[in-house]
């Protein structure tokens, strides 16, 4: 049993090893930082505002290899007093390493099925194929989201756009009477 678990861990880790920050990304290399890419993309302005409001924007201005799964505008906002909750949601959309869609697809095909990556939060994201489209599902969420064809590769990360958040803020409880 222990040998099977070790073999399973190796089969998932090895295909994604090629996707780390040290790898040569398949997509075009963009000048600037991840934060500049997020702020400069008209489709991710809500994510840029949320990163700034929560103090996470500094992470993407520094060195490192990160992948940000950025939900479409209109699906994420920060209300006063919710910064900590939004920061927790955003961490579930940040992955270690610079992953591009070609590397994710290759890992899925090499693995013969879904591959799982830990987030900077407390969960994991499972990538799989739905026909020719890469889809992602968070371990703590119910939504399956699709990766958009557009991606931006920067010197310190990758911005992959998704059609909806992997996880969302907890629903507000009704006020007691």
What does this structure look like?
The protein is an alpha+beta fold. It has a single domain, classed as Roll (FAS1 domain). It has helices at residues 2-17, 34-40, 45-54, 83-91, 101-111, and strands at residues 66-71, 94-96, 115-118, 124-130, 133-138, 144-154, 157-162. It has a seven-stranded mixed beta sheet, sandwiched between helices. The radius of gyration is 16 Å and the shape is globular. The termini are far apart. 36% of the residues are buried. The model is unreliable at 1-27 (pLDDT under 50).
Per-chain topology:
Elements lengths: L1 H16 L16 H7 L4 H10 L11 E6 L11 H9 L2 E3 L4 H11 L3 E4 L5 E7 L2 E6 L5 E11 L2 E6 L15
Parallel strand pairs: 1-7
Antiparallel strand pairs: 1-2, 3-4, 4-5, 5-6, 6-7
Helix pairs in contact: 1-5, 2-3, 3-4
């Amino acid at each position: 049993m222990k040998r099977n678990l070790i073999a399973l861990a190796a089969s998932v880790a090895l295909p994604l090893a090629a996707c780390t920050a040290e790898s040569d990304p398949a997509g075009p290399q963009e000048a600037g930082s991840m934060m500049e890419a997020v702020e400069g993309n008209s489709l991710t302005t809500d994510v840029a505002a949320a990163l700034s409001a929560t103090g996470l924007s500094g992470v993407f201005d520094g060195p490192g290899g990160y992948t940000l799964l950025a939900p479409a505008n209109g699906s994420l906002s920060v209300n006063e007093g919710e910064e900590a909750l939004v920061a927790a949601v955003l961490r579930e959309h940040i992955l270690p390493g610079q992953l591009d869609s070609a590397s994710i697809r290759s890992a899925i095909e090499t693995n013969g099925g879904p591959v799982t990556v830990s987030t900077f939060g407390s969960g994991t994201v499972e990538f799989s194929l739905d026909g020719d489209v890469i889809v992602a599902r968070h371990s703590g969420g119910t939504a399956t989201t699709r990766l958009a064809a557009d991606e931006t590769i920067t010197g310190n990360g990758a911005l992959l756009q998704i059609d909806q958040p992997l996880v969302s803020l907890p629903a507000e409880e009704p006020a007691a009477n």
